[in-house]
Every structure is written in structure tokens, then in C-alpha cells.
């Protein structure tokens, strides 16, 4: 054979031939700059403090810390000086939501006297409850038509009796048991006696001038005949004052027994020393 058979492909481009189905090639895009980790875009400069500013702030913080440490050491030195001088530091810690007095019986009072001190604190709280309930009862009596002066007198009992009880007999007893002070014991006995007398008087509440300012048995009997609801409140107040008086008498007896026992022991010590054998 003179030559091979050739199959002409109409889609192939030959020399000088133009394929009618061909498309023009796309123009390539210009190259774009790529940043670090393909972060395309212009860099943003974040202003930073220079080294001088950082060192200045560091020096200021160190100076403040040194000043706080100096003040803390000064406070500790003063507290130690007061403790050596016998001055007791009593930070306010009770009640927890609004500290107004210092009560830390478990740390301040000897173990053998803690129960008695807790009961005396209950006596203080009992007086606060009695005087507050007295205000409520007298308010009811005032609303039902009694003299409004009894209400003002009941308020005076409350605003003078509560802080007076704390400063006149509870705090002296606290200090007496904490420091073993005979003067504080004497102060406590004097004013606690008046406290017991007031509780007994309030529980009786004789029909004297402005007698209904206190919820005693006589006023409760008179009030229940006029207004049953207020009369029942007066009877409850009478019961509270009776319980307060009984509790206070128990505390007085216990504290007196303890104080008398200590006095007897102190008097017996010299006799025991004189009877000791000379060897």
C-alpha cells in the first residue's frame, strides 16, 4: 500500500485550520500579595506602651505595695502595744448582717464560764424581745382609743432599756469573766439587780400613772375586758416578762455563787500557806 489510511478528526486543529468550537483562553489575574497564614490585607499597628511607661507603672505599684505593708505592720505594732498595756480590742461582730456589738464567747471567755455567759446573753436578747413586744401591745392599745402618751413611754423604754442593759450589766459581766475583774463583777451585780426589779415591775404593771405603757398582769386583765385581741397580746407580754425575770434571777444566782466561791478560795490560800509544813 502506498500509504496508511488516515482518519481526519474535524475537531483537531491542523496547520492553517481554525476550529469553530474552540474558545479563547482567559486572561490570568494579576498576583495578589499574601500575608502571614493567608491573612490578606494591610497590617494594623497596635500602639503599645514603651518600656519607660511600663517601668514607671511597675515602680508605682511596688511603692503602693510597700506602703500597704508598712501600714499593716504599724497596725500590728499598735495592737501588740495595746495588748501589753492590758487594753482589750473588741471588734464589732454581732449581729452578722449589721455588727454593732462585740460577742465572741467561745474565744474570750474561759470554758467553764461559757455556758453562763451564753445564758446571760440570752437574757439580754430576752429583754430586747420583751420591750419590742411591749411596743406592739401598747400600739394596739393606743389605736383602740387609749392615751397616746403610753406609746411614747413604751418607745422610751425600748430605746433606753436595750443599750442601757448592754452597757450597764452585760458588758461588765463579759469583761469580768474575761479579765477576772472584781470591780466589773460589782458593777454587774448593782445594775443587774435593777434589771431584775424592772422585769418584775413590768410583769406586774400596777395601775399607776400611765400603767398601760407596760404589759403587766393588771393591765392585761383590764384590757381584755375592753378589747380581747389587745388583751391577749398583753397576756403574752406578761408571760415574756415573767420568763425574763426568772432567767435573770437564775443568772444572778449563778454569777454570785461563782464570785463568792472565788472569794472563799482566795481567802483560804493564805491560811493554807501558813499551815504548810516548814520543809
TrEMBL record:
<protein>
    <recommendedName>
        <fullName>Secretory carrier-associated membrane protein</fullName>
    </recommendedName>
</protein>
<dbReference type="Pfam" id="PF04144">
    <property type="entry name" value="SCAMP"/>
</dbReference>
<keyword id="KW-0175">Coiled coil</keyword>
<feature type="transmembrane region" description="Helical">
    <location>
        <begin position="150"/>
        <end position="170"/>
    </location>
</feature>
<feature type="transmembrane region" description="Helical">
    <location>
        <begin position="121"/>
        <end position="144"/>
    </location>
</feature>
<keyword id="KW-0812">Transmembrane</keyword>
<keyword id="KW-0472">Membrane</keyword>
<feature type="coiled-coil region">
    <location>
        <begin position="51"/>
        <end position="81"/>
    </location>
</feature>
<dbReference type="InterPro" id="IPR007273">
    <property type="entry name" value="SCAMP"/>
</dbReference>
<dbReference type="GO" id="GO:0005886">
    <property type="term" value="C:plasma membrane"/>
</dbReference>
<feature type="transmembrane region" description="Helical">
    <location>
        <begin position="232"/>
        <end position="252"/>
    </location>
</feature>
<comment type="function">
    <text>Probably involved in membrane trafficking.</text>
</comment>
<feature type="transmembrane region" description="Helical">
    <location>
        <begin position="182"/>
        <end position="204"/>
    </location>
</feature>
<keyword id="KW-1003">Cell membrane</keyword>
<feature type="region of interest" description="Disordered">
    <location>
        <begin position="1"/>
        <end position="36"/>
    </location>
</feature>
<keyword id="KW-0813">Transport</keyword>
<keyword id="KW-1133">Transmembrane helix</keyword>
<dbReference type="GO" id="GO:0030658">
    <property type="term" value="C:transport vesicle membrane"/>
</dbReference>
<feature type="compositionally biased region" description="Pro residues">
    <location>
        <begin position="23"/>
        <end position="33"/>
    </location>
</feature>
<comment type="similarity">
    <text>Belongs to the SCAMP family.</text>
</comment>
<keyword id="KW-0968">Cytoplasmic vesicle</keyword>
<feature type="compositionally biased region" description="Basic and acidic residues">
    <location>
        <begin position="1"/>
        <end position="10"/>
    </location>
</feature>
Amino acid at each position: 500500500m502506498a500509504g496508511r489510511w488516515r482518519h481526519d478528526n474535524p475537531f483537531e486543529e491542523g496547520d492553517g485550520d481554525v476550529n469553530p468550537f474552540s474558545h479563547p483562553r482567559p486572561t490570568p489575574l494579576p498576583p495578589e500579595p499574601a500575608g502571614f497564614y493567608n491573612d490578606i490585607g494591610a497590617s494594623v499597628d497596635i500602639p503599645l506602651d514603651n518600656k519607660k511607661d511600663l517601668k514607671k507603672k511597675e515602680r508605682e505599684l511596688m511603692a503602693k505595695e510597700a506602703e500597704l505593708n508598712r501600714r499593716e505592720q504599724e497596725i500590728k505594732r499598735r495592737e501588740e502595744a495595746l495588748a501589753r498595756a492590758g487594753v482589750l480590742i473588741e471588734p464589732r461582730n454581732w449581729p452578722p448582717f449589721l455588727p454593732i456589738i462585740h460577742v465572741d464567747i467561745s474565744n474570750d471567755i474561759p470554758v467553764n464560764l461559757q455556758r453562763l455567759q451564753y445564758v446571760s446573753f440570752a437574757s439580754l436578747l430576752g429583754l430586747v424581745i420583751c420591750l419590742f413586744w411591749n411596743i406592739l401591745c401598747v400600739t394596739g392599745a393606743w389605736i383602740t382609743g387609749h392615751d397616746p402618751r403610753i406609746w411614747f413611754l413604751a418607745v422610751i423604754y425600748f430605746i433606753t432599756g436595750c443599750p442601757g442593759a448592754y452597757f450597764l450589766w452585760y458588758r461588765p459581766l463579759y469583761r469580768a469573766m474575761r479579765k477576772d475583774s472584781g470591780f466589773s463583777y460589782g458593777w454587774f451585780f448593782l445594775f443587774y439587780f435593777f434589771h431584775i426589779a424592772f422585769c418584775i415591775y413590768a410583769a406586774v404593771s400596777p395601775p399607776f400613772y400611765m400603767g398601760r405603757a407596760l404589759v403587766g398582769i393588771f393591765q392585761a386583765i383590764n384590757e381584755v375586758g375592753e378589747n380581747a385581741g389587745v388583751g391577749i397580746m398583753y397576756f403574752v407580754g406578761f408571760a415574756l416578762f415573767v420568763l425574763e425575770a426568772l432567767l435573770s434571777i437564775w443568772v444572778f444566782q449563778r454569777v454570785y455563787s461563782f464570785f463568792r466561791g472565788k472569794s472563799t478560795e482566795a481567802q483560804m490560800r493564805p491560811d493554807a500557806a501558813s499551815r504548810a509544813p516548814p520543809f
